[in-house]
Write a structure and sequence with these properties.
Order of helices and strands of chain A: HHHHHHHEEHHHHHH
Largest sheet of chain A: 2 strands, antiparallel
Strand order of the largest sheet of chain A: 1-2
Largest interface: A-B, 96 and 89 residues
Oligomer: heterodimer
Number of strands of chain B: 2
Number of helices of chain B: 10
Number of domains of chain A: 2
Largest sheet of chain B: 2 strands, antiparallel
Distance between the termini of chain B: 49 Å
Structural class of chain A: mainly alpha
Strand order of the largest sheet of chain B: 1-2
Strand content of chain B: under 5%
Order of helices and strands of chain B: HHEEHHHHHHHH
Shape of chain B: globular
Shape of chain A: globular
Helix content of chain B: over 70%
Structural class of chain B: mainly alpha
Radius of gyration of chain A: 23 Å
Radius of gyration of chain B: 23 Å
Amino acid sequence: MRGTMKNKSPMSKISSAITEIQRIEDLQKRDQWLNRIHPLVKLACTCFYIVCLVSFHPYDIQGVLSMGLYPLILFMAGDLSITDCLRRVRIVLPLVCLIGLFNPIFDRTPMLLFGFVVRAGFVSMLTLILKGVFAVLSSYILIASTSIENLCYAMSLLHLPGILITEILLIYRYVGLLLSETERITQAYSLRAPGQKGVHFKVWGSLAGQLLLRSMDRANDVFDSMSLRGYSSDFRYIKQYVRWRPSDIIYLALWCAVFLFLRNFPLLLLVGSLFI
Amino acid sequence: MHMADALVAPAVAGTMYLCSAGAATYSVKKVRDMADPKKIPVMGIMGAFVFATQMINFTIPGTGSSGHLCGGMLLTGLLGPCGAFLTMISVLLIQCLLFADGGLLALGCNVCNMAFYGCFIGALIWRLFMKGGMTRGKIIAASIVGSVVTLQMGAFSVVIETLASGITELPFTAFLLAMQPIHLAIGTVEGLITAAVLSFVYSARPELLYCSDTSASENRLSVGKTLAIIGVCAALIGGGLSLFASSYPDGLEWSVERITGSTELDAEGSIYEAAGSVQETTSLLPDYAFKGSESAAGTSFSGIVGGAIVALVCIGGCTAFRFYKKAQTA
């Protein structure tokens, strides 16, 4: 469910989506130490990080700030671009900011923040925004270093239903293809309707409907070709390529210990007290 | 309406994951029972189709703005509730991972807000309209009503989940007033686009639509089963979330406290005393806890018992009303 007031042209929006998918796939294919870590370990680590992150009290801005260590270290050690990732934050931030903006209005309790007296609502708003940004950064680390196939393998280890995993793999496999087809259709339409913003209501049904019918036919072709290649309602995941290594366990244990420490001890205050 | 991780508390996220997992387990079982090997690839391609077409801007006449396709209702109209639900879960997960649209922790909430209502409640509305045969008018009506109703329910859930997570100071009413009207407009536009696409499919290939033939009954989700799912969700929310219920006064108590200095008003007189003693004797779980106990288990138990009592009262009331109407017409 997206907003109704987006003015970005459909062509550029679809192109940027295709580019984004290709860019992430390139990142996933890199031969980096982060990419070689077991997918289940990275998935568990990300989930535990997000749970610890969102469980901080709304006024505990120092605690939330200390949780920035995880993305900071992995972005630097994993050679990931923070600017590429921050573009993704623009999707999350509007709703988070909209909800957080009301906190300073309704919560006017005075509070001390880094030596300044501010409204408690302002602190909770900042905490909320930081939580939103850090959660996006951690998800980005996961997806930039783990392919969808590997993630699906990790989910299969968690005993998620095979149908659901197959669905995710199929959608991911065909989303690029259908995005390209949709781009061609909208490009052809916009060339025949210059200066027109969006698709005219008279062709709403036929434009998307034609694509839908073609997609349905494509699904049948896909099924036939899958059956010819021995498809039996289940995919064989890439088990042979993913192996457990002792370093995976160390990685998970280390980060879990760090998250628990950051969650229970005010790291920033402890470090600050050493110098003041 | 995709919720970010920052907007949910772990307890709320966990509860919503449990609710979504329940519906997903049911859907997986139903899709497996269908034993239709073609169903899986069709669901996969349709998921990709929804993903792609959500990026097309459809111009809204006379406004200068544009709308998008409503994925849940469209998939329900084509795949039925269970297939559509599993497809929507996959779409939401990919959107979350690839485009940061929604969060990993908030996935359970997003599945409930967008997939559950769009698919299961949407299917109920679809079937209700398609009773006695499918027509173009019914498809249009079902698409619009389905999109509006399910979006309203989704928006309402966002409000509840965000407030239950305790991340906003926004009062319930103000938040509700901000969310519901905008989603009414979005739902109407998305419903119109969905109606246009499904009408086109109806004229070109009507056999592709859900409930277009007798086979639809295989994928049927009875009202009883839907009520059972909602009942389980209510028990989970009532029982699970009430453990984290705030000990602070609610809006009314807060207002009273501001005026009088106490959350409870002292009233004197024999009538008040008599009413108080009746209430004390009859209340099963005073202050949402077991009598003489203040344990969290009591609070949780009271949530479940409360849900059951409300459901019983509603069912009893409806049955009594039906008997009354029958007696009147006889």
